[in-house]
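Let's practice the habit of predicting before peeking. Look at the sequence and jot down your guess about where helices and strands might fall. Then scroll down.
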Amino acid sequence: MSLGALVLVFAQGAPVPSAPEGVPPPTTSLPSAPDGVAAPTTSELGPGQRPLVTPMPGNEAPYAEPPPNMPPPDRVGTSLKGGVSAFYQRLFDVPMYGGGLSLAIGPFKRNRTFYLQLDLEHGSTDHGLSTWGGRLTFAPEWAIDRLRLGLGVGAGYLQLARVTNDGALSSFTVLCGELHASFDLVSMADSGAFYLVGAFRVDMHFPGVWGPTAALGFRTDGL
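Done guessing? Here is the structure:
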């Protein structure tokens, strides 16, 4: 064969041999799973096995960022507290001493609690005259760790024994106010605490009755 004929064969392309008669040409498709049998997923493959279909580059599932840390839910519920108290009050220049009981209940959310509080007190003046008193107040307070700060506004009743006879002087007012602060002495996780509280009260009984009060009590937030 001359050099020109050889160049002509390469230019036209060499013939591609065909498959023998009766033999199907080879295919490049991957084998499929038998009818009725699902193809195994990547998680079901055994050691050393590969999936039948390899995902094309760029078709992989996008990477999902893990969810951010969610803040804890707000603490909500009902709080109940009660305690025993001792007070020193003054009516004009007459000092009064005594003690009492208190009971309060109200809802709380996070660090805020809104109490409805009842106080009952009994004492005597410096001259031995008996006194009785009661107060019903709305008393919100805010917690800062183990310290709680609050106030109270409401109505009050005062009864004072007379010197001249067996009767008594009594007064009712809707002008009662106080400021108070408490500290948790023994905390019981989130279920409650033993606390010590100090308050300064002013009740406008015409004349006004004012003075400090201290109490020891227990509070539970598990209701």
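How did you do? DSSP finds one helix and eight strands in the chain.
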